[in-house]
């Protein structure tokens, strides 16, 4: 369903439908039907809050390097499917009559509902019929909320992992710290998924990082000192947090050909996810994963934000 008062439909360079959500303050979010990917999110001053590689622009139908691609039904390469699997490379449809959601996920907000159903092609590599719904909401305050619902319409149970692969735009990765993950256990993908415990009082960046923090708190903050702004991520149904930055060497590798120059310095992926204990749904069951991203000035007190 499209909340028509403050949405418009445009096409990208490849002719793929995009929905632009706007609030009355001038903030906007743009969602592509390709991959159900949020490709842009701007505040009321027109500043882009999500990273997107300059080289990725106009490169669809492959997912663009940036924004918020959805990883479903497999995160990374922890199964038999291609890395991050197929949902992010599919054309989704606008869902005109989605099952209802709580009033807080619609009232006063500009939103669009998208739907992805398993195709014949998907069933060949992942033989489970599903419906994946995504509501993207832009609040009156400019906050972005993503609500995903996965329904098992199969005759047998299935399991999946999921991530909102959120490329946050930052001034310089060396100026960033992530709070809320202190003392948490994480699986380090750079050490064959060995488990460690976070020792520092905040996470800072000086090299490649690729971690899955397991059973993490519902609220995590990403502070950008230079821009004096903080992203606060609030999540429900998403116990894990992925933190990823490829750093210089990997960003210049063949697999990252869409990341140019020093672009890796201006992004950090902090994802609400469910990975370590995949979700299992019986026939007819539904799972919901909700991620809200708020941007506040860094001087803002963290009291009341829930961490
Ligand atoms: O290049 P992709 O497929 O979008 O993936 C980007 C990265 O995503 C991260 O989440 C993974 O941990 C990395 O292994 C991966 O390289």
UniProtKB/TrEMBL annotation:
Keywords per UniProt: Isomerase
Record-level GO BP terms: carbohydrate metabolic process
CC annotations in GO: cytoplasm
Taxonomic superkingdom: Eukaryota
CDD domains xrefs: D-hex-6-P-epi_like (cd09020)
Record field: catalytic activity: alpha-D-glucose 6-phosphate = beta-D-glucose 6-phosphate
GO molecular-function term, one example from the UniProt record: glucose-6-phosphate 1-epimerase activity
Assigned EC number: 5.1.3.15
Sites where the protein binds substrate: 65, 83, 88
Pfam families from the UniProt entry: Aldose_epim (PF01263)
Family: Belongs to the glucose-6-phosphate 1-epimerase family.
Name by which UniProt lists this protein: glucose-6-phosphate 1-epimerase
Organism, as annotated: Helianthus annuus
Lineage of the organism: Eukaryota, Viridiplantae, Streptophyta, Embryophyta, Tracheophyta
């Amino acid at each position: 369903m499209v909340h028509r008062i403050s949405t418009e439909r445009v096409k990208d360079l490849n002719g793929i439908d995009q929905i632009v959500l706007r609030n009355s303050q001038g903030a906007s979010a743009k969602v592509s039907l390709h991959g159900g990917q949020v490709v842009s999110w701007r505040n009321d001053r027109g500043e882009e809050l999500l990273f997107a590689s300059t080289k990725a622009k106009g490169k669809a139908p492959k997912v663009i390097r940036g924004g918020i691609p959805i990883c479903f039904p497999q995160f990374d390469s922890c199964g038999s499917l291609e890395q991050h699997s197929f949902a992010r490379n599919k054309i989704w449809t606008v869902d005109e009559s989605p099952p209802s959601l709580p009033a807080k996920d619609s009232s006063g907000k500009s939103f669009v509902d998208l739907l992805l159903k398993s195709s014949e092609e998907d069933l060949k590599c992942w033989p489970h019929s599903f419906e994946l719904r995504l509501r993207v909401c832009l609040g009156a305050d400019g906050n972005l909320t993503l609500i995903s619902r996965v329904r098992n319409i199969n005759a047998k149970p299935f399991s999946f992992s999921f991530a909102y692969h959120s490329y946050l735009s930052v001034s310089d990765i060396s100026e960033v710290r992530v709070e809320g993950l202190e003392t948490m256990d994480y699986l380090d993908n750079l050490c064959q998924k060995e488990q460690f415990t976070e020792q520092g009082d905040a996470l800072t960046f000086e090299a490649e990082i690729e971690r899955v923090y397991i059973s993490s708190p519902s609220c995590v903050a990403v502070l950008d000192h230079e821009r004096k702004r903080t992203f606060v991520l609030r999540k429900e149904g998403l116990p894990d947090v992925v933190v990823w930055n490829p750093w210089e060497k990997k960003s210049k590798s063949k697999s990252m050909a869409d990341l140019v120059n020093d672009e890796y310095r201006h992004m950090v992926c902090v994802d609400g996810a469910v990975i370590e204990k995949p979700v299992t749904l019986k026939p007819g069951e539904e799972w919901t994963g909700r991620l809200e991203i708020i941007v506040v000035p860094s001087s803002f007190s963290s009291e009341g934000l829930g961490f």
